[in-house]
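2.7 Reproducibility. Because tokenized structures are sensitive to small changes in the input, we list the exact sequence used for Pectin acetylesterase, including any N-terminal residues retained from the expression construct. No trimming or masking was applied before prediction.
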Amino acid sequence: MDKGFFGWLNVLACLLIVLKTDGCYVNITYVQSAVATGAVCLDGSPPAYHWDKGFGAGIDNWLVHIEGGGWCNNVTTCLERKNTRLGSSKLMAKQIAFSGIFSNEPKFNPDFYNWNRIKVRYCDGASFTGDVEAVDPATNLHFRGARIWHAVIDELLAKGMRSAKKAILSGCSAGGLTSILHCDDFHSLFPATTKVKCLADAGYFINAKDLTGTPHIQEIYSDVVKTHGSAKNLPESCTSTFAPNLCFFPQYAARTIHTPLFLLNAAYDSWQVNNILAPGVADPHGLWDSCKLDIKNCDSDQIKTLQGYRLEFLSALEVLGSSTTRGMFINSCYVHCQSEMQETWFRDDSPVLNNTTIAKAIGDWYYDRSPFQEIDCPYPCDSSCHNGLFDPQEHPEL
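Resulting structure tokens (single pass, no recycling of outputs):
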């Protein structure tokens, strides 16, 4: 029997499952062979991913999507992370629902539904950049994100991705940053005939000061790079010009990326508001707590501050310069990550810019049907937004 037949069997199996989401559940795969090379999660467990195989015309196309989940910047925060799914594959769900950009139904995911769709689990705490050989027996912390990246990619290449006709590296949040930092490296794995592009969803974290004027996020990133030994695994095209801690920021690292890149981001990204603009250390009395939870609770002064942050965000985009191969969907919603959820990816009531959904914008850009570079008007002008309540459990605060 051919591969296409088994692909359709997989689709049928998903359709037979009664779900709460518009998608199907996909089993976890552990990269057991990675342990021998030290390509392991923070706790020493093997890396993992979920793979829904391609079928039909999409059987030779591959979407590799990196899970998000913030970072750990020192031994203390990494020890805390080690005992969660973001630091140990032992604690990851054995099955996860695939919807949005992962959906295997054309009505929910018209351009990528029949591709090989992979979600790589995130368990290193440094956007797959770290590589420290020594392991302190007192903590048993393994800083091996870059090794995990190579181990997972090598396994996927061996399982058929090497022959891909089309490929996308994407990710959400810290995974979106991963897709930027590893974009050109991913592209280099394929022959010149393969159509390769990258997508960063909510991964454009900017180097901005907090409410008190402190460069809080820059200090955090500096600690991440130092703790994980990330400098040698950041894009050399960036570190040859900027300090390694700056090259953890997309506004510096993305300037020299040669691979076509699409930036999907909210100008009022809820994680950035919670952790870059108004982290707890900058708001000891919790005056921003209600506003950070729900943008509708923000008072006029807070909205003014948020409008200023939007302008900073747009300025950080402008430094990339103009490129006909770059795509942008920058809306004015209060949300973090919009490609993984069906309601924001592609539905009748999904967010739109220029009457175009996120799924259509990215599909048009990837397939070169038409370019897409749209920036929304300021909040609260966009009635199509799905403004969310910020959930620190899903995207941990720093």
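Residues 15-21 have pLDDT under 50 and may be disordered.
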